[in-house]
Amino acid sequence: MSKNIQVHVIGLIVCLSLFGDLTLFAVLPTHFAMVGVSLANVGILLSVHRLIRVPGSPIAGVLMDRWGRKRFMIAGLVFAVIATSGYGLVQGFWPFLIMRVFWGVAWMCINISGMALVIDLSSSHNRGRYSGQYNTWVMIGLAAGPLLGGLLVDQVGFQKTMLLGGSITMIALLFAIFLIPKRVSKDGIPEDKFSVRGLYPSMQLLRTLPVDIWVIFFLFAITLFTGEGVALSTLSLRAQELFGTGLSLGNWQLGLASVGGILLGYRSLAAALASPFFGRFSDGQLGRFGVLLISLLIGALGFALLGLAENLLWMMIGLTLSAFSAGSNMAVLIAWLGDLAAESQRGSIMGLFATFGDLGSMSGPFIAYQLMGRISLQLIYIYCAGFFLLGAALLLLTRWPHYAGGGR
Predict the structure, then answer these.
(1) Which domains are seen in the chain, by residue range?
(2) Which of 27, 68, 108, 131 sits between 20 and 30 A of 141, alpha carbons compared?
(3) pTM of the predicted model, to two decimals?
(4) What gap in Å lies between CA 289 and CA 400, rounded to an integer?
(5) DSSP labels for 275-332?
(6) Over the stretch 82-99, which tens digit does the pLDDT of each residue have?
(7) Which stretches does DSSP call E strand in 132-258?
């Protein structure tokens, strides 16, 4: 397969693995009783899978540089099949919590190996395009999960929907086993010949990362805190504030789970459309800096509108802008990080990159659900807009002199 086709295959595998997890974000906030948990525990269950990844992702990334991407992708998909199917088979807080931990391990392996594979396959001249293509598939997965999952839960129930998700993830596992090749280093040494003895030097090098990489980490944390954290876990509640128990569109009466799923699905599809466009754009004259700055400002406006919206039209405008920002940020940040990371350290650095994203997305639901007892959900979205402005200010402070001098 050509490198371009390989990127699409990797993206498809990651896309298929996301169905079950994303369905939970659309359904659990309003249907928590069906799995035997309380509303107070929803924030924990939507965050705990990320907690395991915070210490685990850097270690997984380092080991991935030694033992290869493919075996970690396969291991992650095995855990994903167990977790997604388990959602439909268990009841109560503690059993469900264990399944969420399993999913945390699964996504840790799938996410880091997927991003590292794309970086391996690309160069500085096409990295934005390739990362945009990859993120399009990821965003399609983020869309299909809540969209199809929410509709299916309303039609056939939670248990059958989750078991179907496990079957879809099994298909992704088969694709990974037969279609992802093993990587060979520049020295011609097969990946499985590397030793864990290289772990310590890799960790040492993480202490010498340049400022630009730390800026990338921070911007990624902001992107996931606001989008995959706050918005993903509360958009159904924001819809409930505006539309009550459902939404009437002509002769169609949509239940709240369907409305939440459609909104989340639309956001991810819009991000999927934006990601390759902005990624390719960042390969050109405007560069990573220019595209990121525009994207952060668009994100600030989008979340401000989500907080201020009083009807469906303004909510959709805000949702669209926030989606464009998310799709752009994901593509450009991965491409920029790939430009800066040495080949021998890509897995290690992508692991740390994933950790910052997990810190953002993990704290999003937890902080939002804690704050909702004190301030309005609308104000929480306004605060998210402020985080984007903070990120834009940091980017200007650290990168403007270089960019003004002709850098990217």
Answers:
(1) 3-178+209-404 (1.20.1250.20)
(2) 68
(3) 0.81
(4) 8
(5) HHHHHHHHTSSSHHHHHHHHHHHHHHHHHHHHHH--SHHHHHHHHHHHHHHHHHHHHH
(6) 999 999 999 999 999 999
(7) 246-249, 252-255
